Amino acid sequence: MLRVGVMVSGGGTNLQAILDSLDAGRITNVEIAVVISNNPGAYALERAKGHGIDAVCISPKEYPDREAFNEALVAKVDEYDLGLIVLAGFLVKIPQQMIDKYENRIINIHPSLIPSFCGVGFYGLKVHEAALARGVKITGATVHYVDGGMDTGPIILQKAVEVKDGDTPKVLQQRVMEEAEWVILPEAIDKIANS
Ligand code: GAR
Fold first, then answer.
1. pTM for this model (two decimals)
2. 101 C-alpha to center of ligand 1: Å?
3. N or C: which end of the chain has fewer CB within 10 A?
4. Which residues line ligand 1 at a C-beta cut-off of 6 Å?
5. Where are the alpha helices (DSSP H) in 5-150?
6. Mutate to test the pocket of ligand 1, among 6, 109, 157 (most ligand atoms within 8 A of CB)
7. Domains recognised in the chain with CATH numbers
8. 111-162 pLDDT, tens per residue?
9. Angle between helix 125-134 and helix 169-176 axes, rounded to 10 deg
C-alpha cells in the first residue's frame, strides 16, 4: 500500500477527483495518509476531513521567516512516512531540502501542456489567460515529477483539451479540469502505485 500525502492550497477539486477515484476502485494500492495546506481557509481541508483523512495546515504566516516555514513543512511531511507526495494545486514553492529528500516521489499537476504556459508566474487562472491571449487552439494538462526547477521535471502523463471560440479563462479552466486534470492525476497515482 503506497502512503500518499496530498498538498493543496485551494478548492481541492483535484483532491476530490483522487478521493472519488479511490472510492470507485480506479486507484488501487493507495492510502491517503494526510492532506496538507498552506492556507487555513482551503476548502480542500474540509474535503479531507469529510473523508476521515488527517487535514493539516502549515501557514507561512505562523512562522518568522521562509526558512522556519520550510522546516516546519518538511517536518510535518516527514511525520507521515510517505511514499508519494502529490501537489494538487499547491501554490507554494517546495523547499529544496524536501525535493532532495523525496527525489522521484513528488508529482505535480499543471493546467497546460508543458512546456507551454509553465514556469514562474504561471499558475491557476493565469495559465488559461495566457493560453487565450496567445490564441492556442489546443491546451491541456500535465502530470510531472517535481525537480529543482519550476515545472521542469520528467513528464508522466499529458492530455490535450480543445480551446473553443468565446472561451473565458474560467470556462477554459473548468474544461481543462474536467477533461484532463481530474482524469490524468488519478491515473498517474494509480500507475505509480502499481508499477
Ligand atoms: C488546478 O487547476 C491545478 O492544475 C493548478 O491549480 C488548480 C487547483 O485547483 N495548479 C497550478 O497551477 C500549479 N502550477 P483545485 O484546488 O480545485 O484542485
1. 0.97
2. 24
3. C
4. 8, 10-14, 44, 88-89, 109-111, 123-124, 127, 177, 181
5. 13-23, 43-50, 66-79, 96-101, 125-134
6. 109
7. 2-193 (3.40.50.170)
8. 999 999 999 999 999 999 999 999 999 999 999 999 999 999 999 999 999 9
9. 110
